[in-house]
């Protein structure tokens, strides 16, 4: 984009219109200033039918592609938004960079460490293009407030993070169907907690991990070497530590929370996963409804993350001075390729530890 095009919106093409891609597409179509949803892409007719039904109906003008190569060949698309199966991310990022596009890609960067390294290497050849990996928890207002407080010294020197990602049980077997492409519970769920821990602890290097797991309900996960409940410990250089828990079997909803402990205090983020501020007082006691899914918990974070990406790209492509500063702050908050590489490296080591029953030294 040239400087004289600065008033033009960023034209985005979303690839993948499944569980999460549709949410991203709706955000980009209607809720992100400076962005236009120019195209969508999915090999599935059901997904394209959804786009035909839902997006034009509410006034969106865009093109539909079945083939990712066609999306990349569309010269009117400035940025691609990858919400495709995790095993495809690495090659799709490389292809998008070579096609001259900016890239937003959902987590994880890849299920394979060497693939992550290849993307980091390739991206260095395209310094003018933005690449951000979607660790949206960094944009959640509560997580961001905790991060700012840690940075300001509110709890002294942070040295320990406890963090969990726990999904509502799905008795219909969604998690078993998702297992062949998810990378397993540690690369799919815990990868968020790993990123949060590194982010809150100042990006220390991991030195050793140990993981264990159990199949509490979903026997079908065993054939993929996966579990529905996993715990892990991660040691970092400089005496820093993290403890992780991930579950697919919660009875009450999506229960995602983190805690950071420092030498002069601690911060807890989201320990009671309330859907809203209503308390029910009845014969069973006093309770709240829980956030049902990850999207209900992090809807605002997904939106702020998209707004920050679009602002960052528009600023680097020739925006105004003030916008550039705001965008630099937003871009700095997001996970870089190097952050995403480290998250996969640690998540992969946890999967190895689960498989072998041994600690893994990194
Ligand atoms: N940030 C989060 O908390 C979060 C939550 C859920 C999913 N995710 C990530 O989002 C990604 C998608 O997850 P999902 O749950 O939406 O999966 P999904 O299976 O529901 O959707 C995947 C979509 O990608 C499409 N697709 C497959 N191959 C394609 C190709 N070559 N080109 C274009 N589209 C293609 C599929 O047709 C489908 O529409 C995964 O990487 C997952 O890890 C992140």
From TrEMBL:
Protein name: Gfo/Idh/MocA family oxidoreductase
One Pfam family from the record: GFO_IDH_MocA_C3
PANTHER family: BINDING ROSSMANN FOLD OXIDOREDUCTASE, PUTATIVE (AFU_ORTHOLOGUE AFUA_2G10240)-RELATED (PTHR42840:SF3), NAD(P)-BINDING ROSSMANN-FOLD SUPERFAMILY PROTEIN-RELATED (PTHR42840)
Family according to the record: Belongs to the Gfo/Idh/MocA family.
The UniProt record lists the keyword Oxidoreductase: yes
Residue span(s) of domain Gfo/Idh/MocA-like oxidoreductase N-terminal: 10-125
Oxidoreductase listed as a keyword: yes
């Amino acid at each position: 984009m040239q400087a004289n095009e600065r008033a033009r919106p960023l034209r985005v093409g979303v690839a993948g219109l499944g569980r999460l891609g549709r949410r991203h597409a709706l955000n980009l179509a209607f809720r992100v200033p400076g962005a236009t949803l120019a195209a969508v892409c999915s090999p599935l007719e059901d997904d394209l039918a959804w786009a035909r039904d839902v997006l034009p109906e509410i006034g969106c003008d865009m093109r539909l592609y079945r083939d990712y190569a066609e999306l990349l060949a569309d010269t009117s698309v400035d940025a691609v938004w990858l919400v495709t199966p995790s095993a495809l991310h690495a090659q799709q990022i490389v292809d998008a960079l070579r096609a001259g596009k900016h890239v937003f890609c959902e987590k994880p960067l890849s299920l394979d460490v060497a693939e992550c390294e290849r993307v980091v290497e390739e991206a260095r050849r395209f310094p003018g293009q933005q690449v951000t990996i979607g660790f949206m928890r960094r944009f959640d207002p509560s997580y961001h407030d905790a991060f700012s407080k840690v940075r300001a010294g509110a709890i002294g020197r942070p040295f320990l993070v406890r963090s969990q990602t726990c999904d509502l049980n799905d008795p219909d077997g969604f998690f078993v169907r998702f297992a062949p492409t998810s990378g397993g519970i540690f690369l799919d769920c815990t990868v968020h907690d790993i990123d949060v821990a590194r982010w809150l602890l100042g990006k220390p290097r991991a030195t050793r991990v140990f993981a264990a797991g159990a199949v509490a309900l979903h026997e079908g996960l065993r054939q993929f070497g996966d579990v529905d409940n996993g715990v892990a410990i991660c040691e970092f250089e400089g005496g820093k530590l993290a403890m992780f828990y991930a579950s697919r079997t919660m009875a009450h909803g999506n229960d995602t929370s983190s805690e950071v402990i420092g030498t002069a205090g601690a911060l807890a983020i989201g320990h009671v996963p309330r859907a809203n501020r209503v308390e029910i007082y009845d014969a069973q006691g006093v309770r709240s409804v829980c956030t049902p899914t990850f999207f209900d918990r992090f809807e605002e974070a997904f939106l702020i993350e998209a707004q920050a990406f679009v602002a960052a790209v528009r600023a680097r492509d020739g925006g105004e001075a003030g916008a550039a500063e705001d965008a630099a702050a937003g871009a700095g908050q997001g996970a870089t390729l190097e952050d995403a590489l480290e998250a996969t490296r640690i998540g992969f080591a946890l999967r190895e530890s689960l498989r072998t029953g041994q600690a893994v030294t990194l």
